[in-house]
Amino acid sequence: MAAVILQAKGLAKAYGGLKAVDGVDFALNAGEIHALIGPNGAGKTTFVSLLSGRIAPDAGQITLAGQDVTALPAHLRVRKGIAYTFQITSIYPRLSVFDNVALAAQSQGARDLAGAVGVALGRVGMQGLAGQEAGTLSYGHQRLLELAMGLALKPKVLILDEPTQGLAAGEIDDFGALVRSLVPHTTVLMIEHNMEVVMDLAHRITVLNFGRVLAQGTPAEIRANPAVQAAYLGTD
Ligand code: ATP
C-alpha cells in the first residue's frame, strides 16, 4: 500500500451556522495526483485552506508524514513541505521571473539559489524567460511561473487551486504533461473543475458535497458512482 503523506481526520470548519467542511477524513498517498472535485460551495477551497494553514479548523487533525501540523501556522507548514500555490506564491510583477522564483527558493533556505531557480524554471520549461519582467508574461506563463515558485519551495505536497482555469486548450495539454512529470518527486492535490483534466490526470479523486466526502476512488470508480452522478456529474 502507498504511504500516506498528508492525512486529515474529522476536519471541520463552520461559518456561522454553515458547515463548510463537516467532518472530513482524507488521505493523500505519496506520489499521487489527487483531484478534489465537487459542486460550487462544496467546501473545496475551505478544505485546502485548512490543509495549508490559511484558516484554522474548529475540529479535527492534520498530519504531514505522520507529524501533527494542525496547530502550525501556514508559513511553518510551507517549511515542512505543504505548498499552496495561490497562497504562497503571488507573483511580484515588477521583478524578473528569476527573482520571483529566487524569493520562493530563498524562503526555503536554498544554498545554491541560482541552481535552485534554474531547476524550478527548467521543470516548467521557462529557463529562456528568466530575465523577463514577470508582469509582462502571458497569462499562461504567469501560471507556470506560480508553479515554478511552488516547486522552488521543494514541497512534499503541492496544492493547486484550479490550475487550468483560464488556460487555452493547448496550454491545458502541456499542463497535464507537466504535472505528470512532477510525480512521484512530489505529491499533487488539485482542485479542478475541468472534468476532462480530472479524469485524464488524477490517480484518485475525492468528491466533496455539502462539506462532506461524497465519494473517493479512481476516475473509473468516480465516473461509475451513482451518488456522484446524481449530485454532480449528471447522469448522461
Ligand atoms: P467553488 O467551487 O465555488 O470555489 P468550494 O467548493 O471551493 O466552491 P468553499 O469556497 O470552500 O467551496 O465554500 C464552502 C461554503 O462555505 C460556501 O457556502 C461558502 O459560501 C462558505 N464560505 C467560504 N468561505 C467563507 C467565509 N470566509 N465566510 C463565510 N462563508 C464562507
Notes on the structure:
With 236 residues, this protein is an alpha/beta fold. 39% of the residues lie in helices and 26% in strands. It has ten helices and ten strands. It has a six-stranded mixed sheet, sandwiched between helices. Strand 1 (4-15) and strand 2 form a beta hairpin. The longest helix has 14 residues, at 139-152. The chain is globular. The two termini are 34 Å apart. The mean pLDDT is 92. Adenosine-5'-triphosphate is lined by residues 15, 18, 20, 38, 40-46.
Multimeric status of the protein: single chain
- Runs in which pLDDT lies below 50 for 5 or more consecutive residues are none
E-strand count: 10
Q: Report the sheet with the most strands, covering strand number, pairing sense and barrel closure.
A: 6 strands, mixed
Q: Counting H and I runs of at least 4 residues, what is the number of helices?
A: 10
The set of bound ligands, ions and cofactors reads: adenosine-5'-triphosphate
